[in-house]
Design a protein that fits this description.
Elements: H1 2-14, H2 40-47, E1 52-53, H3 60-92, H4 98-122, H5 128-146, H6 152-166, H7 169-180, H8 183-193, H9 196-215, H10 217-238, H11 243-246, E2 252-253, H12 260-271, H13 274-305, H14 309-337, H15 343-362, H16 367-396, H17 402-430, E3 432-435, E4 438-441, H18 444-472
Antiparallel strand pairs: 1-2, 3-4
Length: 473
């Protein structure tokens, strides 16, 4: 019933008139999460340059823009994660090897990492509605084309392009939020918008998996393409990119200009801060854990624990759904119970995350146990995305270096995500044997790699915590 109420609410919001002076928006506390990678610099510049409507008098147009950004970016994710669902059939039909799919996935992440930095600057200078719509259109068309079998070289090239255009989504959405919401309210909307990646993951692992299981891997690509085209329409129709163009009825406030000399000094201090680099390493290893399950979790459950594709996808989707709670609750928990000290909850959630991965990969088929592992993994990875993906970097950096800090941490995370796809694909492929024409896998080396990286993330977080404690003495 909840999903139908939410759907009716979204429809009602989208049908509101653009002009109103009486609408108010009330959402819970302010939080941070994953997709600030590489785009916080753009956020910082916008907050110092653009007129920001006071949302106490916010017109419905702003709420439409917020909902369009949240739903539209979740559809970006479907066009990104479609490959995770079709890996099994592609390998099963002999179209690609495990190593080839690992290389394809790593190419995506490296392209995505560079694109985040470049497009984070570029999006500041263009029409964000057209930019977000155009990039998602290209991504949808790539998914459509991949529904027709292509060779490895062309697949790799297209997925490389997909990584680049996918990197447009987050900067465009965050720029939109900075233009529509004041400093006091922006964090709240930013936190809720950041849950869009969990929504997109959940839809991918449920809807796409059902289609692939019942209709075939080609239809899985085409479903992703259709939902991507829906996202294009949402961005084009409802993502108003500038309050001045939408002419809301609220008043505006203009922030002061940034002192560029002070910003350069802040950047220099940041680069000499060893804590930032320890947090970056912790983020890199955490991203290995996150994308190991996202990229290979379904395949692992199919081949190691004898689940069907639909069952495996449903189990992995539990982590995405529970990740919303971890993302939304982590900042509030650290503020309320740890006096804004992010280090302790980061280490604690990191330990639980490593334990959940350990049990997940080292135990045999058990529906209850596997779902329980995904619940713990989802909540903890959601919290770690908040802490290691941006919030700790913001706490450490001077105000003038916030974007640079999150950019460094974000780049490290993307490198970790890309590297794990190569290593996981290699470990899976080289530990496969054929018995009577049937593939048998030894997933222990892959599992040890996943567990080791999750544990190293905890170690780096602990070292950063102790280093900060010594600085305070």
């Amino acid at each position: 019933m909840l999903k139908w109420r939410l759907a009716r609410y979204l429809v009602a919001i989208m049908s509101l008139p653009d002009q109103s002076s009486s609408s108010q928006v009330h959402l819970p506390q302010d939080l941070f999460a994953d997709d600030s990678i590489g785009v916080e610099s753009a956020l910082s510049r916008e907050s110092n340059r653009s007129p920001v409507p006071k949302t106490s008098l916010l017109a419905p147009t702003a709420l439409k823009a917020f909902l369009a950004a949240t739903l539209g970016y979740s559809l970006y994710y479907i066009c990104r994660l479609s490959i995770s669902v079709v890996k099994g059939p592609l390998i099963g039909e002999g179209l690609f090897t495990e190593l080839q799919l690992g290389l394809i996935g790593s190419g995506f992440f490296y392209s995505y990492a560079i694109g985040k930095l470049v497009n984070g600057f570029l999006v500041d200078r263009v029409n964000i509605r057209k930019f977000a719509s155009g990039a998602l259109l290209i991504s949808a068309l790539i998914n459509l084309f991949l529904g027709f079998h292509v060779g490895f070289a062309l697949f790799f090239t297209l997925w490389l392009v997909n990584g680049w255009v996918q990197s447009v989504g987050a900067p465009a959405c965050i720029i939109g939020l900075t233009r529509w919401f004041s400093d006091k309210e922006r964090g709240t909307y930013y936190g809720f918008w950041s849950s869009s990646h969990n929504i997109g993951e959940g839809m991918t692992f449920v809807l796409t998996a059902i289609v692939v299981t019942r209709l075939g891997w080609q239809q899985g690509w085409w479903l992703a393409a259709a939902l991507g085209l829906l996202g294009v329409l949402i961005f084009w129709l409802f993502f108003r990119e500038n309050p001045a163009l939408a002419k809301p009825t609220s008043r505006v406030a203009v922030a002061p200009e940034v002192d560029r000399a002070e910003v350069r000094k802040a950047h220099s201090r940041l680069l000499r801060n060893p804590t930032v680099w320890l947090v970056s390493l912790a983020s890199m290893f955490m991203y290995v854990s996150r994308y190991s399950v996202n990229s290979w979790g379904i395949f692992f459950l199919e081949k190691s624990k004898d689940y069907s594709m639909e069952q495996a996808s449903m189990i992995v989707s539990v982590a995405s759904i529970c990740g919303i709670a971890g993302t939304v609750g982590s900042g509030w928990v650290s503020d309320k119970y740890f006096n804004r000290d992010r280090a302790i909850p980061t280490v604690l959630t990191g330990v639980l995350n490593a334990l959940s991965i350990t049990v997940f990969v080292l135990t045999s088929h058990s529906v209850v146990l596997d779902i329980s592992c995904m619940v713990v993994f989802g909540v903890t990875i959601g919290a770690l995305l908040c802490y290691l993906g941006g919030l700790i970097a913001v706490d450490i950096a001077d105000k003038g270096a916030t974007g640079a800090a999150v950019g460094i941490v974000g780049m490290a995370g993307s490198i970790g995500a890309g590297t794990q796809d190569i290593i996981s694909g290699y470990l899976i492929g080289t530990n496969k044997s054929m018995v009577n024409g049937v593939s048998h896998y030894n997933f222990l080396p892959m599992g040890i790699f996943w567990i080791t990286c999750a544990s190293l993330s905890v170690l780096m977080s602990f070292m950063a915590w102790k280093l900060q404690q010594r600085k305070r003495l």
